[in-house]
Amino acid sequence: MTHFYPAFLDLRGRRVVVIGGGAIAEQKVVGLLDAGAQVSVISPSVSRRLEDLAAAGTVAIERRPYRDGDLAGAFLAIAATDDRVANRAVWVEAEARSVLLNAVDDLPHCSFIAPAIHRQGDVAIAVSTAGKSPALAVRLRERIGRLVGPEYATLLALLGELRAELAQRVPDARARTRLWYSIVDSDAIEFVRRGDVAGARRHIGRLVAAAGEPETRGPGIVYIVGAGPGDPGLITRRGLQRLRGAEVVIYDRLVHPDLLEEAPPWAERIFVGKRPGSEGHGLPQEQINALLIETARSGRVVVRLKGGDPFVFGRGAEECEALWGAGVPYEVVPGVTSAIAAPGAAGIPVTHRRYASAFAVVAGHECDAASDLDWDALARLPALVFLMGLRALPEITTRLIAHGMSQQTPAAVIASATLPQQRTVIGTLATLAERAGAAGLEPPATLVVGDVVATAAAEQASRLEAAPVVLLGSDLSP
């Protein structure tokens, strides 16, 4: 695998030679002119637009085939021809003269590849596929273009005006870097989107003023943030905003690594979850509470990042109680709970107008021999969701059957829900434990029990190739 080093070249006033005069060459010439290059075109024939550019004195054209020596004095060259023999000749000269060369759709004769570019003012985003699929690069650029509109060019202009001022007002490089991130991650872009540039200036000004008064920041704060069920894209927008402003991130095992990358580079990251295969919590809850209090009291912004939703078997309420008792400010940012997301990712509704107008969520690890759950009541409900219940799966199915639920009740286990490695096993209360064991499923996993599972199994059987899950076994009829 070849990895290309991305770079943006300053071509202002530099000589660039384009071999070829067709539509592709024309496209390259226009881009080079936008970058301020002095362009020479060499081709026996050229397009109408290139002729117009030559007539305007914008480009120089030599109407003849390429010949050795044409790259003399060039900084960069582009071979935009269909002639591989000519490309080879250009390549030999480019290598001899240390001239950068891109041969369009001819990767072996390239010393660099031209990415697909999306521009908004001085914002330039390059997409490269290492020369393997320019069409894919173009489509990716178009998708990026729908996300990065002209408002970002306006914001960039505002930020550019600030650079000299911030260097003087915030001389400490580390503090200045934090300030830049806080500005970029703030609501300034929303002001610009609304056309309120003056409002964006005032908003940024308040952030700059606050940064210049570090002693008035007051106590720290803890944000208890739900990270969602697994896929990093399922964190809420507010949760992501809080994470990007964190100075300390205290996180559990089920938090996706990509989410940790969203925190600022200088943010301290503290792991407090249990390691895979271990029993119990990695750090006792009392010590986690003390860590949150101590860290916030140091005046820092703390994000307590928890898988799923903090208040759904996440012990978030206990942390809130500890923070309240210690007088530490906090805010809870709800997350997408796997109690709903995991079944949904497997195509299983937790409610259905015909089959289930209610469902219960149960902590699976509370289902051991000493469980004090009301199993009679659970067995009468139309839909049940058990979180963290994979190891207790045999106990759960046995108890439900013993308390009156039919052995033929549809049931499913979804492991690693919402992630690329998601796997789903479907069966009945009588067969599911054996099927899941044979499939070798590993936590985290979610158990769903009820007729709602059968409706999903029928749909998945009819569209298995398009389904976002892997059915490892089902004894349910469509």
Describe this structure in words.
The chain is an alpha/beta fold and 478 residues long. The protein has 4 domains: 15-114, NAD(P)-binding Rossmann-like Domain (Rossmann fold), CATH 3.40.50.720; 151-216; 221-333, 3-Layer(aba) Sandwich (Cobalt-precorrin-4 Transmethylase, domain 1), CATH 3.40.1010; 340-466, Tetrapyrrole methylase, C-terminal domain (Methyltransferase, Cobalt-precorrin-4 Transmethylase, Domain 2, 2-Layer Sandwich). The protein has helices spanning 23-34, 48-55, 84-97, 134-147, 150-169, 173-184, 188-193, 197-211, 237-244, 257-260, 285-297, 316-326, 338-345, 375-380, 393-402, 432-439, 452-462, and strands spanning 15-19, 38-42, 60-62, 76-79, 100-103, 116-120, 123-127, 221-226, 248-251, 268-271, 301-306, 330-333, 360-363, 383-387, 410-415, 423-428, 445-450. The strands form 4 sheets. The chain has a 5-stranded parallel β-sheet with strand order 3-2-1-4-5, sandwiched between helices. Strands 10-9-11-8-12 form a 5-stranded parallel β-sheet, sandwiched between helices. Helix 5 (150-169) runs parallel beside helix 8 (197-211), helix 6 runs antiparallel to helix 8 (197-211) and helix 11 packs across helix 12.
Which secondary structure elements does this structure contain, and how are they paired or packed?
Layout: E1 15-19, H1 23-34, E2 38-42, H2 48-55, E3 60-62, E4 76-79, H3 84-97, E5 100-103, E6 116-120, E7 123-127, H4 134-147, H5 150-169, H6 173-184, H7 188-193, H8 197-211, E8 221-226, H9 237-244, E9 248-251, H10 257-260, E10 268-271, H11 285-297, E11 301-306, H12 316-326, E12 330-333, H13 338-345, E13 360-363, H14 375-380, E14 383-387, H15 393-402, E15 410-415, E16 423-428, H16 432-439, E17 445-450, H17 452-462
Parallel strand pairs: 1-2, 1-4, 2-3, 4-5, 8-11, 8-12, 9-10, 9-11, 13-14
Antiparallel strand pairs: 6-7, 14-17, 15-16, 15-17
Helix pairs in contact: 5-8, 6-8, 11-12
